[in-house]
Design brief:
By secondary structure, the protein is mainly α. About 80% of the residues lie in helices and about 0% in strands.
């Protein structure tokens, strides 16, 4: 939810300030895009470590479920912003021109043209990010983030209990499959 709340506005901002955007601003787009790409290039396990001071500031600790939420949310926002930006860019520009010719504001065009037209791709993007976050959350167990990753590290790896490790992998695969099937069904429902 945090990734959607942060990623969607950031994607809209990037779309509006891009070269063909309604509020084209080369400097704003270039700066934001550079920072976004730079942050996205950091591997998740390193991002967790780099964000420890910010995590401690926000949630008061660097270990546990709440501490794992901060880097997970940031990783989700960064990934989702780029995926939704791509989805918004694929909307036929002729529809945007019709909105402009009708006197619509940038906000109205985003609300009534861009988002509804890109909705199937946005849902697909959200599905992809959720699947990635499931993998990232398992990785968060390596730094005391709790959950399945913690079980996999503490019992499956450190105690060499391969049977438990296999169960955890099966649960993760099932979670991903449920998310993917649900996402695909929603995309099909909203496809025009």
């Amino acid at each position: 939810i945090i990734a959607i709340l942060g990623g969607l506005p950031l994607a809209i901002y990037l779309t509006l300030t891009s070269n063909k955007g309604l509020k084209a601003n080369r400097f704003a787009y270039g700066t934001t895009g550079f920072l976004l790409n730079a942050a996205r290039s950091i591997p998740y396990i390193i991002l967790m470590v780099l964000m420890m001071p910010i995590t401690r500031l926000l949630v008061g600790t660097t270990i546990g479920v709440w501490a794992a939420t901060v880097p997970l949310a940031i990783a989700g926002i960064l990934l989702l912003a780029r995926l939704i930006e791509d989805a918004l860019r694929q909307v036929n520009y002729g529809l945007v021109e019709v909105g402009l010719a009708s006197g619509a504001t940038a906000f109205q065009i985003v609300k009534t043209i861009l988002i509804p037209e890109a909705l199937p791709m946005i849902i697909s993007s959200i599905t992809t990010v959720i699947v990635n976050l499931i993998g990232f959350s398992a990785m968060a167990g390596a730094v005391g983030g709790g959950g399945l990753g913690d079980l996999a590290i503490r019992y499956g790896y450190q105690r060499y209990e391969l049977e438990l490790l296999c169960y955890i992998v099966v649960v993760l695969v099932m979670m991903v499959q449920i998310v993917q099937v649900t996402g695909n069904a929603l995309v099909k429902k909203f496809m025009k």
